[in-house]
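Example (one chain per record):
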Amino acid sequence: MTNAEWVRFLNAQRPDIRPDAKQNTFRYKGHNFLYLQSPHSTVKQQIGYQNGLFYTEKGFEQHPAMRLSWFAAQAYCHWLRQKTGQPYRLPTEAEWEWAARGGLQSKGYFYAGGNAVDSVAWFWDN
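Predicted structure:
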């Protein structure tokens, strides 16, 4: 899902989405839901919140949505199913692993795209 799609969903749900005091972390139905900016991140914030509405920062509308919880992704799938009548869901762990390893085109790598984690993934140490 893109930031633009995600913001449409967020604004449709906003009466039930509650911000923390800094309006940086949001909860929905008792669950952590969305984090606008991590204090450890150097990535520019792509979604903002002002006057009770979410918005996409200019130029980031078609970027993939970030910093959302598993619960948020599930809620988005449920909303999209209701809105379109089409079946949407997150992949199972097995489906995700199979796709990440290359599916039918897999070359037997340990990680998606290679065996050296530093070259194929972003994580705390790099």
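Caption: The chain has a mean pLDDT of 85.
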